[in-house]
Design goal:
It is a single chain. By secondary structure, the protein is of the alpha+beta class. The chain has 2 domains: about 25-70 and about 80-245 and about 355-395, no CATH class; about 250-355 and about 435-535, Serum Albumin, Chain A, Domain 1, CATH 1.10.246.130. It is built from 18 helices and 21 strands. Helix 2 (about 45-60) packs antiparallel against helix 4 (about 120-130) and helix 2 runs parallel beside helix 5. The longest helix is centred in the middle third of the chain and has 21 residues, at about 290-310. The mean pLDDT is about 95. It comes from Paenibacillus radicis (ex Xue et al. 2023).
Length: about 525
């Protein structure tokens, strides 16, 4: 990896971190320290990733939880492995059934968008296949945080209060009572610096640890989830939980200027990032902060996203092949559409033929890119009483159109926004990276990869650089730290540019690169309470 370690044009607050023994990067300091404690205890990067992920369900519940989904890219023993632990729709739900009940679209909250949670199974599967320590040891820091409590950090406190106000206005009725009892026990969101604890969460984590997640899918927690769902007319059943297993998948990639960029295949939308980079590699970029660079990046992303939103679905239900969407000929066809003015995105026809992100590395060469989410912050607004488990609402991403590739169907996985990334060169690991944040994620991946490969920014600078976010049609938001003359020029080219008043919505990223000499170089996100833990 070639970059100037001292070149840091976008922030004077933080520099890249260096270590040769181990590193954990994530959005919350206590979670990073949990992963570091496991490394110090003799665990490897996989153990540290699980410990960090479990801790994040406690110390950043505004973005993820036990009741969500997870994906991972794991470099170990000279190979990159992909894990898809996203769950399907319940067997009892269908478009026809919902329509007969008078429902015309999939809501954001409540039981209808709840799909089978995959996160606990991901932890158990990773631990069983690649871990060195027991799952009980690895989840212990998270259990202690939940039992003893922890003080809220600034961005966490802001997000928690925003969610509380939203749910107070929109979630009425008995099914949502357990959420308020769990996350607003004093009738309000806990404040910044205030200690919050969740003994129910601790007991659930203990049960998951002791049974290698069997309690969640075939035991006491599954029974409680089933009972809660039945009580309030939900669709999720213990049979749906018992049938779930994580899936080991072959990661997909494109070569970008000598580097292989890796993503999890659909139903995740890492494919969008790869399609955009495949288009962009046909251009030459010498400077990051120019009108031409941003214009082409935005146009490529619009083209890639329009294809992704049409075709990405449960892999067995896609009408086109991933390799056709990533072909050089299709990239050239889409690239030719980029001109000097903003275009309205339309999907092509290739030839047939709310989230937390973390990354870890150890001194043995193992590296993990891991992401998990409840979606839209706290998810469905439902907490299983007596468990602390907030259920996600990932089914909201299904289409209600029966003719769409991503239409809702029993046992089908929805289009998924959470994506871990990984970079290799000449079959050697460079390292894990990710930028969480809903539909920002592929856009963040493209910007971080280009910041690294094209513009030679170190990890911290690559994350600190101003970001843009394509919203829809010609609408683009851009961070207030971007240059005014660039924004004005983009507007003259037909882009509907809006200055962002803050940095919420532009994603939260983490990076670890391994240098040729084995030294680890990490960066964390200044847009959240990010932290790099090293030893």
């Amino acid at each position: 990896m070639s970059f100037d370690p001292l070149y840091h044009p976008y922030s004077s607050q933080r520099m890249s971190a260096y270590s040769n023994n181990g590193m954990v990067c994530t959005s919350q300091p206590l979670a990073a320290q949990a992963g570091l404690a496991i490394l110090r205890k003799g665990g490897n990067a996989i153990d540290a990733a699980i410990a960090t992920a479990a801790a994040l369900t406690v110390v950043e519940p505004t973005s993820n939880g036990i009741g969500g989904d997870a994906f991972a890219l794991v470099w170990t023993q000279g190979k990159l492995h992909g894990l898809n632990s996203s769950g399907p729709a319940p067997q009892s739900i269908s478009i026809d059934g919902l329509k007969k009940a008078g429902i015309e679209e999939i809501p954001k909250y409540g039981f209808i968008p709840v799909t089978v949670p995959g996160t606990p199974a991901a932890w158990a599967e990773l631990s069983e296949k690649f871990g060195k320590l027991s799952l009980t040891e690895v989840l212990q820091p998270a259990i202690e945080y939940a039992e003893n409590g922890f003080p809220l950090t600034p961005i966490l406190g802001f997000s928690w209060d925003r969610a509380f106000r939203n749910f107070s206005n929109n979630l009425k009725g008995e099914p949502y009572k357990a959420w308020f009892d769990t996350f607003a026990p004093l009738g309000r969101a806990p404040g910044i610096g205030e200690v919050w604890r969740s003994p129910d969460h601790a007991r659930s984590l203990q049960a998951i640890a002791e049974t290698k997640a069997e309690a969640f899918y075939r035991g006491e927690l599954a029974e409680k989830i089933d009972q809660f769902s039945r009580q309030y007319g939900g669709y999720l059943r213990k049979e749906d939980l018992a049938a779930f297993k994580p899936e080991w998948v072959n990661p997909i990639s494109i070569n970008y200027r000598g580097y292989d960029v890796w993503e999890i295949p659909p139903n995740g939308h890492g494919l969008v990032a790869l399609m955009a980079l495949n288009i962009l590699k046909g251009f030459e970029f010498t400077e990051r902060d120019t009108v031409d660079t941003l214009h082409k990046q935005i146009e490529a992303m619009k083209l890639a996203y329009s294809d992704g939103q049409k075709y990405i679905a449960d892999p067995g239900k896609m009408s086109v092949k991933v390799e056709d969407l990533l072909s050089e000929s299709y990239a050239a066809e889409r690239r030719a559409l980029i001109g000097k003015t903003a275009l309205l995105p339309k999907s092509g026809q290739p030839s047939s033929g709310g989230t937390v992100y973390l990354c870890t590395a150890d001194g043995e060469g193992n590296m993990v890119s891991f992401i998990q989410s409840n979606y839209m912050g706290f998810g469905s607004g439902l907490v299983v009483p007596g468990t602390g488990i907030a259920l996600h609402n990932r089914g909201h991403n299904f289409s209600f159109d029966p003719a769409h590739d991503n239409c809702l169907a029993p046992g089908k996985k929805p289009y998924h926004t959470i994506i871990p990334g990984f970079l290799t060169k000449e079959n050697k690991p460079v390292g894990p990276f990710g930028v969480m944040g809903g539909f920002m994620q592929p856009q963040g991946h493209v910007q971080v990869v280009m910041n690294t490969v094209d513009f030679h920014l170190n990890p911290q600078a690559a994350l600190d650089a101003p970001r843009w976010l394509w919203k829809h049609e010609k609408a683009v938001e851009i961070e207030h730290t971007a240059s005014a003359h660039i924004v004005e020029s983009l507007a003259r080219m037909g882009h509907d540019i809006k200055w962002a008043t803050g940095n919420v919505g532009f994603g939260r990223g983490q990076i670890i690169w391994r240098q040729d000499n084995g030294v680890l170089v990490g960066g964390t996100e200044h847009r959240t309470d990010g932290h790099v833990a090293i030893f």
